[in-house]
Design a protein that fits this description.
Layout (H helix, E strand, L loop, with lengths): L30 E2 L6 E2 L2 H11 L6 H45 L1
Antiparallel strand pairs: 1-2
Helix pairs in contact: 1-2
């Protein structure tokens, strides 16, 4: 196959079937997408979906909500990284201290 033949190939085919988003019996979705009707358990998930699936259709208010959710996620991720780094740091020094006590004994 040559490079010229690749131009005829559809690299992004349309899906064969549409996704179905069934809500389990006895549950009610907190919100749905205003553009495609997909149900979501939380408003945060719906906001992520809007940013990924409908970025060109967002209103200014929805864009602000996406930015707020993104900022919150960045803060939560930063906090997780700090906690993980401190845990590794303390574990390293705990084992170093125990090792020093064993050799000093």
């Amino acid at each position: 196959m040559t490079a010229g033949q690749l131009t005829d190939v559809d690299l992004h085919p349309e899906p064969v079937t549409e996704y179905e988003y069934d809500v389990p019996a006895g549950e009610e979705p907190e919100t749905t997408c205003p553009y495609c009707g997909r149900p979501f358990r939380t408003q945060r998930y719906a906001t992520y979906h809007l940013d990924v699936a409908h970025p060109d259709e967002l209103s200014d208010e929805e864009r602000a909500a996406v930015e707020d959710v993104r900022d919150d996620e960045e803060y939560e991720l930063f906090t997780f990284h700090v906690k993980a780094a401190v845990s590794v740091f303390l574990t390293y020094f705990l084992f170093t201290f125990i090792y020093a006590l064993v050799w000093a004994g």
